[in-house]
Design brief:
The protein is about 40% helix and about 15% strand. The chain is an alpha+beta fold.
Length: about 210
């Protein structure tokens, strides 16, 4: 049985980039994670280290420890961790150049993660991380394409979880916006079909990751 990571190694794992899984640390620390099968060294320069699926599972299995470490490190972080907007978040929504750069960087990081983790190196369909973070992945694809999320007084897309294991629901303020979201998701490797809620008659998209 593989030994659990040390406290120091857990901190490295929890601090990995939330989208790409890229790790930061000394060469010795990163090599030790690789020896345990929790990280791998990218073959291309700059030979960065990234979490393996086992490393990702380790991070996901320890949310409480991650939260405690984040608070201990910085009780009031200035920027926080990037999170794609799913629509309906509370508080002010910055939509200026800084946010656009963050979204663009996160999307490029996700494409790189697809290239590294899809068995054939394909970037035109979702990877394993997206299949376990459906709402966040769909929201990132929509926000990166320029669709406005709902929030405050503004109306826009909303991404919500569903009882289905590999599908999320996407709502939009009007039929044109819904069709535009469907086109964006199709181009990003998702299958999206329109459905109607039986009771409310509201139209929505049911999106799931394309496998081929």
């Amino acid at each position: 049985m593989t030994r659990p990571p040390t406290a120091a190694q857990r901190r490295l794992i929890e601090a990995a980039d939330p989208v790409t899984g890229r790790l930061r640390g000394t060469q010795a620390q990163l090599a030790a994670l690789a020896e345990r099968g929790l990280a791998f060294r990218h073959p291309r320069p700059p030979h960065a280290y990234f979490l393996t699926p086992a490393g990702q599972r380790t991070r996901e299995a320890e949310p409480e420890a991650a939260e405690k470490n984040a608070v201990a490190a910085d009780p009031a972080p200035a920027g926080g961790v990037f999170a794609a907007r799913t629509g309906g978040e509370q508080g002010p929504h910055a939509a200026g150049p800084a946010r656009l750069r963050e979204v663009r960087s996160a999307w490029q990081g996700l494409l790189e993660l697809r290239r590294m983790t899809n068995s054939d190196g394909a970037v035109d369909r979702p990877c394993g991380w997206e299949r376990t973070h459906l709402v966040r992945a769909v929201a990132l694809a929509l926000e990166a394409a320029g669709h406005p999320p709902a929030g405050g007084d503004a109306d826009g897309y909303r991404v919500r979880a569903t009882p289905q294991p590999e599908a999320v629901a996407v709502y939009a303020p009007d039929p044109e916006s819904l069709a535009a979201c469907a086109a964006t998701l199709a181009g990003a490797g998702w299958q999206a079909g329109e459905y109607t809620e039986p009771r409310t008659r509201v139209r929505y998209l049911l999106a799931s990751p394309r496998r081929v």
